[in-house]
Amino acid sequence: MNATTAVFEEWVRRFATLVAANRDYLTELDAAIGDADHGSNMDRGMQAAVAALDEAPSASAGAMFSKVGMTLVSTVGGASGPLFGTFFLRMGTSLGDSQDPTPLDVATALRAGLGGVVARGKAEPGDKTMYDALAPAVDALDNALAAQSPLSAGLKAAQEAAAAGRDATTPMLARKGRASYLGERSVGHQDPGATTVALLIEAAAESAF
Ligand code: ADP
Ligand code: MG
Predict the structure, then answer these.
(1) Are 207 and 188 in contact (CB under 8 A)?
(2) Which ligand neighbours the alpha carbon of 77 most closely?
(3) How far apart are CA 75 and CA 71, in angstroms?
C-alpha cells in the first residue's frame, strides 16, 4: 500500500475509533428521536470495516473506500448502513484506482459521496438528517480549495462546517427517516446521523493529509 492510500485508510480507522468512543452517545441521541440503535449500528459496521481492512492491504484509496462501503451495506441494517455505505462506495468509485489523488480529487469524491446519500435517501436541506452536516462540509472544502488553501486547511474548514451543520439540526423538524414519525416532537433534538458525519469529517481533519 502506498503512503497516500495509507493516509486515507488512517482516516477510516480514526473514524471507526471515534464512532466506538461515541457509540453510547450516538445511541442516546437516537433514543430521543428514533429507535436507539444508531451508535450500535455504526459501531458494528465500522468494526467490520476495520476487520476487512486488516485482512489485506488495499490497492488504492478508491479500492479501500469501496471495501468499507460494501462492508457497511452488508453488515448494518436500518437507514444508516445503506446511506453511509453508499457514501463510501461513491467515494471509492470517484477516486478509482488513482495512486495519488489530488486535493480536488478528494473534494470531488466527497461530492460524489454526498450525491450517493441524496440518491438513496432523497434528503433535502433542513430535513434534519446526515445531509445537513455533510453538505456544508463538502461546500466548505470546495470553497477552501478554490481559495488556494491546502487540503489540510480545507478539511479543517470542513470539520467546522460539519459541526455547525450538526448543531443546526437541533431546532429542525425531521422530515425523513424514523425521526419524521415524531413530527413536532423531533424539534429540540440533535440528529444522530449528522453527529456521526461530524465525527467522519473530524477524523479526516485529524489525519495526515
Ligand atoms: P434507523 O433510522 O433505521 O434506525 P439509524 O438509527 O442507524 O437508522 O440512523 C438514523 C440516521 O439516519 C438519522 O439520524 C439520519 O441522519 C439518517 N437518515 C435517516 N433517513 C435518512 C434519509 N432519507 N436521508 C438521509 N439521512 C437519513
Ligand atoms: Mg435508529
Answers:
(1) no
(2) 1
(3) 6
Q: Which amino acid is at 53?
A: L
Grade residue 1 by pLDDT with cuts at 50, 70 and 90. Answer: confident
- pTM for this structure? 0.98
Give the pLDDT score at 78.
Answer: 87
Å from CA of 153 to ligand 2 middle: 33
What CATH number does the domain located at 5-206 have? 1.25.40.340
DSSP for 89-120, written as a single string: HHHHHHHTT-SS--HHHHHHHHHHHHHHHHHH
Kindly list the domain boundaries of the chain, sorted by start residue: 5-206
Q: In terms of Cα–Cα distance, which of 172, 204, 177 is closest to 190?
A: 172
Task: Answer whether 138's CB lies under 8 Å from 110's CB.
Answer: yes
**Cell 444508531 belongs to which residue?**
38
How many angstroms separate the alpha carbon of residue 126 from the centre of ligand 2? 19
- Ligand 1: atom nearest CA of 30 is 6
CB 158 within 8 A of CB 204: yes
Q: Is residue 65 scored above 90 in pLDDT?
A: yes
Residue 197 and residue 101: Cα distance in Å, rounded?
A: 22
Q: What is the CA(91)–ligand 1 centre distance, in A?
A: 19
**Segment 103-121, tens digit of pLDDT:** 999 999 999 999 999 999 9
- Contact present, 101 and 4 (Cβ < 8 Å): yes
